[in-house]
Amino acid sequence: MANVQRPTLPTRNARTPTVYGAWERFVRGEDDIAGVRPEVALSWHRCRDRYRVDPALTEAPVAITDVDHSLEHDVVFAELGFRAASVVNEVAGIGGVVTVADATGRVLAEWGNKDTRNFAAKANLAPWYCWSESATGTNGMGTALETTAPVVIRGPEHWCEAFHDWNCAGVAVRDVVSKQPVAVLNISCWRSELPKAAGAWLSNAASRTQFTLRRRARDAGAELIAAYNHARSNAAVSLAAVDPSGRVVIADDRAGVLLGVPSCTPAPDPAERWNPGLPGLVRAVRYAAKQAASNPDWVGSTQIHTHLSDEPTQVSIRPVFQFGHLVGDIVVFGASDGEQMPRGEQGVGVPERGSAPRVVASRENRMVLLRPPEVAFAESDGSDVWLSTDEGRLRAASPALDKIERELGGTGFLRVHRQYVVNLDRIREVERGFKGELALVMDDAARTMVPVSRRNAPVVRKALGL
C-alpha cells in the first residue's frame, strides 16, 4: 500500500497575530514572513507572484465546466466519495464539512454539518466552484493539489482574508505514473478546531485510493510488456515500451543503449520504471496521447535525441490500450510509420530552446533561484527535498524528488537512488565496493558520498562511461 504521510495539525499559534501580521505585510509586497510555516510561505508566494490572486476575494469563482478526465479518474472520485460518506456523521458532529474536488480544484461533492454548509455557501465552498490556488489562493484543497504531502491551512494562513475564519485539512490523490493530481479530499471547519482524527482519516483514505491506482498501473504495465513481446516477435527492429509519462517499462538491447536504461528488464510496477531523461521522448509520448484520445488507431513518427549520438534518431510511436484506456506506447527505433509529428523550434521530438530551468529553494524568509550547475544533488528526506548547492544546504520549494528529476532530467541530472538525484558534472570520484556496489563522491564542500542503488547502477555506469 502506498505510504501517505499524515498531516501534522499545527497548534493554535497559526492563528496568533504573528501569522496575521506576516500576512498583512506580505500582501503589501514585503517579503518578511517570519513565523509562517514554509509550506504556507511558498503558497503565498505562488498566490501573490505567479497567480496574482486578489487577497480581498470573498468567494470562489465558478469552475470551468468543460474539463477532460479519463475513466480512471472516475474510479478515484467514486472511491473518495465512498470514503467521505463513511465518516460524514463524525465530521458533521463536530461542525465540519467534507469535500471532494478534481485536479482543477472544482468541487464535485460536499457533505457535513448543515449550519457549516450554510456558511460555506456564502464563500462558494460548494459543488461546481473552483478552489485551486490559482483561483482562490491558499486553502486546504488548492494547496494540497500543489504539493505531494497532506496540508493543513488554519485561519490567517489562507491567502484571502474572507477565509480567515476557516480551518482546513486536505490531501491530494496522485496518478502513480504521471505523479499529477487526480483529486483532493478536504475537511473544513468554520471557527472551530479540526477533528483530532482528521490527519489519520485523510491519510488512510488517500492510501487506500492510491493502492487501487497502483494495482491498476501494474496491470497496465503487464499489458505494455505483452504488447512489446508481441511486437518484438513480429518485427526485426529495435523496440521499447514506455508508459504515458515517458518512463521505460522494458527495452531491448539496442533501445536500452539509446535510452540509457537497463535492457530486457521488465518493470511493470511504476516505482521500478526507468526515466531516460530525454525531454524529446516525453514530448513525443504526450503528443501521441492527445492524438490517440480521438483516434485509437493513430500511429506517428518523429526524431528524438538519445544518449548514443548527437544526431537525432527516427522513431515511430504506437499507442497501447487496455479496455479502451491508454496505458503507454511502443517506441520503434529506425521506423517512420504513420503521421509525421510537428517539428521545428517547438517540435515534439527536438529540444526546446529558451532559458535553462531554474531550481527554486527557500532560505529563512526568502526564495532562492538557482541555476542547475549550482546544484550538486537533491536528497529526499521524508516529505522534504533538500538541495546541496554552492550556497549551502537549502530546502527545495518542491517536496517531490520525482518532480525535480523531471524538470532537470535534460540538464545533466540523473536519478541514482530512490532518495538522490545528482548533477553528473558535480561528481568528483566514484568508489567501488567489494561486491561491485557504487558510491559517488560529490564536489560539494562536505564531499558528500551518495549511494547508487543496485537497480540504477547500470545506468550510472553508462552515463559516466565506466
Automatic annotation (TrEMBL):
Gene3D superfamilies, per database record: 3.30.450.40, LytTr DNA-binding domain
InterPro entries found in the cross-reference section: GAF-like_dom_sf, LytR-like, LytTR_DNA-bd_dom
Gene Ontology molecular function: DNA binding; phosphorelay response regulator activity
Pfam families the record matches: LytTR (PF04397)
UniProt domain HTH LytTR-type: residue ranges: 359-466
Protein name: Transcriptional regulator, LytTR family
Organism: Saccharopolyspora flava
